[in-house]
Amino acid sequence: MKTTLAFVASFFLAASAAAQQSPAPKGQAEPQGQAAQAPSQLNPEDLVKQVTSDVLGTIQSDKKLQAGDKQKALKLAEEKVLPHIDFQEAVHLAMGRSWNQATPEQREQLTKAFRTMLVRIYSNAIERYQGQTMKVLPVRMQPGATEVVVRNQYLSPGRPPTPVEYSMRKGPDGWKIYDIAVEGVSLVLTYRAEFENITRTSGVDGLIKKMQEKQA
For domain 2-21+37-213, is the CATH number 1.10.1040.50? Predict the structure, then answer.
């Protein structure tokens, strides 16, 4: 469960970390040359930093978000975070070989259901993340690479850092996250056994129905 929540909530933690580590003076303009770039033009590390900055700016200007308003948080996720997650690739990997059994229409339904399921879980447990921060570690990647792992650390007072790894892939729209591992536990592998078992006994439509039930 912790893995699932972190998949969407991580950027909110990053914003909290940025607020504590390098708060911008109120009313101060961005230095010249630091204008935001289009996400598709950014490398993985800069993408995380830019999304963090966008989220932080929104949180700082909205007292309801600061108080943990779930609807506001979901709206922020929809606008600032979810566009940078490749849910189709995520559910593809989560299903494993079962993905090959799905028709194009079923794949579209699976992607939509998986996305909604994760966002709902995040919404119901957002308060668990209050007080944590996140440290973004430097990214090392080869020139021309189209896949990379971005390593971060969740920081909680009085506890050892929690390692978090984002698996990212470069596509036509730039870099997107398709998996996350928290303390070595992958989101994909967490769901694979369950998804393959449901598909084996109830088929792809049975899996879609099960995911939709979790949204209720």
Answer: no
